[in-house]
Amino acid sequence: MKIQGHPWRTVWLNADAQVEVIDQRFLPHELITAVLPDVASFERAIREMWIRGAPLIGVVAAYGLAVAMRHDSSDTSLLAAQRTLLATRPTAVNLQWGLARMVADLLPRPPQDRVQAAFALAAHMADEDVSMNHQLGLHGLALIREVARRKPGQRIHILTHCNAGWLATVDWGTATSAIYQAYNEGIGVHVWVDETRPRNQGASLTAWELGQHGVPHTLIVDNAGGHLMQHGQVDMCIVGTDRVTARGDVCNKIGTYLKALAAHDNNVPFYVAMPSPTLDLSVHDGVREIPIEDRAGEEISHMTGLDAHGYLSTVQISPTGTPTNTNPGFDVTPARLVTALITDRGLCAATPAAIAALFGPQPQPHFASAD
């Protein structure tokens, strides 16, 4: 996608063959990039959310293993790097998928061949992510076209949650891919962007990237979505996901479940954009089985933004001493509330039979041993 008219990806190899990423902590106020020279820097970038979004985490972790091979291509180094990166974020299944895919490819190779093979596979995974998200968007575009056909000359209002845009992937985004393609086609789309507390990824990231591309949008508070649905101001919801279970439960940023409940109560279609690697057929009951990341309480008690002098400042918004020790980063939306999954393979009902028919069995991932 574009920043000030120029095409960008979220991760790339720079002129010195170093892995470079957009450091999303400073958006939307500053565009800063960061070089990741070693496994420790990848661990920090993923854990501290310099980069975030399930698809992007998977690809960046793959590059992390490639960089590890550049320093030491032994089995010990490979499996140690896998363990280190696997521990950074527990909820997004793409992290497990990306690391397992790299290890399965590299372990059978002699150590002297691993550096070139690792960087080639990581680059392929990045290109694959772009292709999958573009294809996913085409299937979502068909849904937007149908709404536009029923509302000739009127705007199509789409509500999204958190950031499932190109900043959460290598390019295109998941939930936003169809929106960008509809806008590029000349369909009159308008996006309701909820702020997505506590880290405000909607306000800081989704609003920024939509604005860079010229897509009409309005920032709203998290709790306004239900009201807008009650008054007929939302034609559809499209959200992303960090993990989808074999029966169609969807794990996504905290607050997604409440949007799905409001959509169900108001007969608003609720779609989930899911690239294939985000499906986890080893999990069935999302509420009981998916580990939910519990994040630092400072995300609740403090906020960062531009002060009156134009400097980035962090301020405390709650009384000193107020408990903030419950901060789940994600929730699970039961399959019954999902109208359909928008995937790179086509639209899919959120049911075990439909998912099994479209995706079939998945290979078991290869994880490093605990010792």
UniProtKB/TrEMBL annotation:
InterPro entries noted in UniProt: IF-2B-related, IF-M1Pi, IF_2B-like_C, Initiation_fac_2B_a/b/d, M1Pi_N, NagB/RpiA_transferase-like
Name of this chain's protein: Methylthioribose-1-phosphate isomerase
Name of the gene this protein is made from: mtnA
Active-site feature positions: D242 (proton donor)
General function of this protein: Catalyzes the interconversion of methylthioribose-1-phosphate (MTR-1-P) into methylthioribulose-1-phosphate (MTRu-1-P). Also catalyzes the interconversion of 5-deoxyribose 1-phosphate and 5-deoxyribulose 1-phosphate. Part of a bifunctional DHAP-shunt salvage pathway for SAM by-products.
Record pathway: Amino-acid biosynthesis; L-methionine biosynthesis via salvage pathway; L-methionine from S-methyl-5-thio-alpha-D-ribose 1-phosphate: step 1/6
Molecular function terms, GO-annotated: S-methyl-5-thioribose-1-phosphate isomerase activity
GO biological process assignments: L-methionine salvage from methylthioadenosine
Top enzyme class: isomerase
Keyword Amino-acid biosynthesis: yes
Gene3D superfamilies, per the entry: translation initiation factor eif-2b, domain 1, Translation initiation factor eif-2b, domain 2
Residue ranges the record marks as coiled coil: none
EC number: 5.3.1.23
Residues carrying the site annotation Transition state stabilizer: C162
Name of one Pfam family that matches: IF-2B
Keyword Cytoplasm: no
Family to which the UniProt record says this protein belongs: Belongs to the EIF-2B alpha/beta/delta subunits family. MtnA subfamily.
